Amino acid sequence: MTINLQDYIAGGFYITHYMSRPAWMQADLIPDEYLSLSGCISDRLPVASSWLTDVPDEAKNLGMTPDLWESFKEWSNDNLGKQFGYPDTFYTLEAARRILKHYFPIPNQLMIMGIGLHKSRVQAFLTQHQDSGDYYGVYKVLSQLHVLREGALIKGLEVLGYGNGINHSWLCYNMEWQCHQKLGIAPNDAGLLGESDADAVNAYVNENEGGWSWQPWLVVQYPSD
């Protein structure tokens, strides 16, 4: 996949892992294990969760223990708006790496993922969401206008819906079947898209599924140390 990281503005960093395809996704289009940065269909470490007594399912699925959750909640409460933004976006790669190392000491399949929006789309996005944007991590990181850092493994693009942070994916709405039928588009072996396919899917989703600010985000993986 020929994509230039310099063309994409960073929108934040996340701790997650591959997800098992649910029964309602198309098995002939979505791989058994897929990647997503949607808060609806992926496990992302919830960082703005200091009010929760029990370990939330997303964190539990990533391997967080109750003892570490208590400590993590204190960090989360102290660092909201400093090292991460609501609901689960780390501002820097270094912050995500520190949390992964400190709170997940047992080797596992967790990954640090970054997202980026093509520079041609950034200003319109920032203008559209400027009234409430600074409260949300992805907006704050994007507004710094830093290109994605080198050293990333490009996984593909995902059409994601922004509301109060990144919430939904085109996959949440079974759009993989519709886009395959109408546009001839199929995701790659991570469940993600190439640039031109992502642009086409984004246009289709915007026409057919309102309620969110849909954009094609580049998804990349960074080394954990």
Keywords:
two-stranded antiparallel sheet, 7 helices, alpha+beta, single chain, five-stranded antiparallel sheet, 9 strands, 225 residues
Report on this structure:
A hairpin with a 1-residue loop joins strand 7 and strand 8. The chain has one domain. The longest helix has 14 residues. It has about 220 residues and is an alpha+beta fold. The protein is about 30% helix and about 25% strand. The protein starts with 7 loop residues before the first strand and ends with a strand. It is globular and about 50 Å long.
What share of residues are in beta strands? 15-25%
Q: Main beta sheet, described?
A: 5 strands, antiparallel
List the helices and strands in order.
EEEHHEEHEHHEEHHE
Q: How many helices does DSSP assign?
A: 7
Number of strands: 9
**How would you state the average pLDDT, rounded?**
93
The coarse silhouette is globular
Q: What is the multimeric organization of the chains shown? A: single chain
Cα gyration radius (Å) = 17 Å
What helical percentage do the residues reach? 25-40%
